[in-house]
């Protein structure tokens, strides 16, 4: 359970169907999201109390936000406060639900007759719905959102902001999808909302992501669904039926914790020709750490002590931990080729080139005998990224960090372009 600090609760800022939002007097810029023991469907046409729902929803949302935050996605989430509440950045909410679909089902089939349930979207299908209970949240086009000229916390929602939310929705879906796949669960579709942080004026993932936000099919089997549809499809609301709904939500909240755990340990073993290469290796180690990958540094020369190089190699092949070897050797690089010719594990050469001989030395890393699959990456940061891409095939947490990094790079370029255009005007 979360360790609970005493918070001075201010006025209620908002109340939705399943939560209340309060200001925090001693923490300007932060709010408390308090979940309610209520479950709803069809814009609250159906509404029932469900004891324990608040704790289940809060636990689920806190874990999903933690997964996204640790991956590098910008969210409003700060930390879980209690069993039924979490602290978040105060945002002005953009009144749009962004829906991302991997599989055609539900309302998509009604709106697109002729499409069979189970049709798979690759790339993902994106839809927007304007939050308007009175009109049943009508579907909006991008043009409608742009023409609405919404302004929140001093930020006008224009093309740049819409593009950022659209890109972010896809990345967020893919990260959550990848995490649920480790539990043999298919994320079928998911809805999210964004807000503009009152403090930083930047767009962040806000509101909640809980069992009401997605369709989740264990083993891809709709008959095993564990999401809000269990409640929505009840013929009759009885105490027994509500217990079944609660059990489904509990099943999810128990498993959602596992999404934060690595599925496989992995590592990068950095072999350097001499200690003069330590500074270069430290750059690689630091970049690996940003993906959560541990690094081991060893000194060995394939020219001067090939037997020792192969003994060190065998040490890391013998324990079954997925490993990428990185060879850091200046001048004539014997380390990468010798390693590559004697292991089935991936080997990357990352030679520390000098301005004087670098253009000549690099050929010892590039021109390989046949039968060697040793790649060469010159930048220490790019070398770590390549190692992460290899290990991310087995470890979803590494993959999620790579995916968020890709999004953040794209967003920073988009914002830089917007800023430059504003200066030019």
UniProtKB/TrEMBL annotation:
SMART domains: AIRC. In the C-terminal section; belongs to the AIR carboxylase family. Class II subfamily. GO terms for molecular function: ATP binding; carboxy-lyase activity; phosphoribosylaminoimidazolesuccinocarboxamide synthase activity. One of its GO terms (cellular component) is cytosol. Residues 266-413 form the PurE domain. Homooctamer. InterPro entries: PurE_classII, PurE_dom, SAICAR_synt/ADE2_N, SAICAR_synthetase, SAICAR_synthetase_CS. This is PurE domain-containing protein. Pfam families: AIRC, SAICAR_synt. GO terms for biological process: 'de novo' IMP biosynthetic process. PANTHER family: BIFUNCTIONAL PHOSPHORIBOSYLAMINOIMIDAZOLE CARBOXYLASE_PHOSPHORIBOSYLAMINOIMIDAZOLE SUCCINOCARBOXAMIDE SYNTHETASE, MULTIFUNCTIONAL PROTEIN ADE2. Pathway: Purine metabolism; IMP biosynthesis via de novo pathway; 5-amino-1-(5-phospho-D-ribosyl)imidazole-4-carboxamide from 5-amino-1-(5-phospho-D-ribosyl)imidazole-4-carboxylate: step 1/2; Purine metabolism; IMP biosynthesis via de novo pathway; 5-amino-1-(5-phospho-D-ribosyl)imidazole-4-carboxylate from 5-amino-1-(5-phospho-D-ribosyl)imidazole (carboxylase route): step 1/1. Keywords: ATP-binding, Decarboxylase, Ligase, Lyase, Multifunctional enzyme, Nucleotide-binding, Purine biosynthesis.
């Amino acid at each position: 359970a979360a360790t609970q600090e005493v918070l001075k609760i201010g006025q209620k800022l908002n109340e939705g169907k399943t939560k209340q939002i309060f200001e925090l007097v001693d923490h300007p810029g932060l709010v408390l999201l308090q979940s309610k023991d209520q479950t709803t469907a069809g814009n609250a046409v159906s509404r029932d109390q469900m004891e324990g729902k608040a704790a289940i929803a809060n636990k689920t949302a806190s874990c999903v936000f933690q997964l996204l935050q640790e991956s590098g996605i910008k969210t409003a989430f700060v930390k879980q406060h209690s069993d039924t509440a979490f602290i978040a950045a105060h945002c002005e909410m953009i009144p749009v639900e962004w829906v991302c679909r991997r599989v055609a089902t539900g309302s998509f089939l009604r709106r697109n007759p002729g499409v069979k349930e189970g049709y798979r979207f690759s790339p993902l299908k994106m839809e927007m719905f304007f939050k308007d209970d009175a009109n049943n949240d009508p579907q909006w086009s991008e043009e409608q959102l742009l023409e609405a000229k919404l302004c929140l916390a001093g930020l006008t929602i224009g093309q740049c902001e819409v593009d950022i939310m659209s890109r972010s929705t896809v990345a967020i879906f893919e990260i959550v999808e990848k995490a649920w796949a480790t539990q043999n669960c298919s994320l079928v579709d998911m809805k999210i909302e964004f807000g503009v942080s009152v403090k930083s004026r930047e767009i962040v993932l806000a509101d909640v992501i809980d069992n009401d936000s997605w369709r989740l099919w264990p083993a891809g089997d709709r008959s095993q669904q564990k999401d809000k549809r269990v409640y929505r499809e009840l013929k009759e609301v009885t105490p027994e039926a509500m217990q079944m709904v609660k059990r489904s939500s509990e099943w999810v909240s128990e498993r959602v914790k596992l999404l934060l755990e690595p599925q496989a340990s992995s590592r990068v073993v950095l072999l350097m020709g001499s200690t003069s290469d330590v500074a270069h290796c430290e750059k690689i180690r630091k970049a690996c750490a940003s993906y959560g990958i541990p690094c081991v540094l060893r000194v060995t020369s394939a020219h001067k002590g090939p037997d020792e190089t192969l003994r060190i190699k065998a040490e890391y092949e013998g324990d079954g931990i997925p490993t990428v070897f990185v060879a850091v050797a200046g001048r004539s690089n014997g380390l990468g080729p010798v390693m590559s010719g004697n292991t089935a594990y991936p080997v990357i050469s990352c030679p520390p080139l000098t301005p004087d001989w670098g253009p000549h030395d690099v050929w010892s890393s590039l021109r390989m005998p046949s039968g060697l699959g040793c790649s060469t990456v010159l930048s220490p940061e790019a070398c770590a990224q390549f190692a992460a891409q290899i290990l991310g095939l087995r470890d979803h947490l590494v993959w999620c960090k790579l995916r968020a990094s890709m999004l953040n790079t794209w967003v920073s370029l988009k914002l830089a372009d917007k800023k430059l255009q504003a200066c030019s005007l």
